[in-house]
Design brief:
The protein has 208 residues and is of the alpha/beta class. It is built from six helices and 13 strands. Strands 1, 4, 5, 6, 7, 8, 9, 10 and 11 form a nine-stranded mixed beta sheet that branches. The protein binds 1-O-pyrophosphono-5-O-phosphono-alpha-D-ribofuranose (PRP) and uracil.
């Protein structure tokens, strides 16, 4: 299974700010969005391009573009929407689907409450967005819902991944590629990532 961890001093620097409990909502949101952009560049390294002719101020040239319609970005509500700005900055015509789910606080199992994706989703590569891959339960459900719709190529973009979540996806969906800014140590007894950054949704939306 392909698991890509961004390894860059600037990414580490941004992560240090993000993880710090003293970092406020504004800066937290900005960094989530910035890291989502970098993850998007990395995940789209294999994007197919087509030739097109343009004219620079100097002369005509043959250059390359991607077809933005080949993709659908699917944030998992709520926290995944915090990554959307960073994606739309680079893929302004991106089609967006939403999967609403929350983890039950006792069982840590995800509950799906909303599912709306582009009509022709089966023809697109689906790029799931969620800052946290913890037990992997939410990612697993999202992947299964998309595969049921006929999606053949899926990538999962997150800010922090736990080894437990990676292992679960590896076992169940080895075809799905994971892109993350960091792979952390483990989960704690409440299924939070250690050292992690706390509750991503609450920190993005300022709900705690
Ligand atoms: C968080 C996070 C993931 C999920 C990860 O969402 O954004 O969706 O938990 O955990 P898992 O890998 O163990 O499933 P949460 O349920 O807190 O909802 P929220 O985005 O509304 O805060
Ligand atoms: N969800 C979060 O927001 N943070 C974690 O550490 C685990 C799941």
């Amino acid at each position: 299974m392909k698991v890509i961890e961004l390894k860059h001093p600037l990414v580490e620097h941004k992560l240090a700010i993000l993880r710090d409990k003293k970092t406020g909502t504004k800066e937290f949101r900005e960094i989530i969005s910035e890291l989502a952009t970098i993850l998007c560049y990395e995940a789209m390294k294999d994007a197919k391009t087509y030739e097109t002719e343009i004219e620079t101020p100097i002369r005509k040239m043959i250059t390359h573009k991607i077809n933005e319609n080949h993709y659908a970005f699917i944030p998992i509500l709520r926290a995944g929407t915090g990554m959307l700005d960073g994606i739309i900055n680079v893929i302004p015509n991106a089609k967006i689907g939403h999967i609403g789910m929350y983890r039950d606080e006792e069982t840590f199992k995800p509950n799906v409450y909303f599912f709306k994706v582009p009509k022709d989703i089966e023809k697109r590569e689906a790029i799931i967005l969620d800052p946290m891959l913890a037990t992997g339960g939410s990612a697993l459900d999202a992947i299964e819902l998309l595969k049921k719709e006929g999606v053949k190529k899926i990538k999962f973009l997150c800010i922090i991944a736990a080894p437990e979540g990676i292992k679960k996806l590896e076992e169940e969906h080895p075809d799905v590629e994971i892109y993350c800014a960091a792979i952390d140590e483990k989960l704690n007894e409440n299924a939070y990532i250690v050292p992690g950054l706390g509750d991503a949704g609450d920190r993005i939306f300022g709900t705690k």
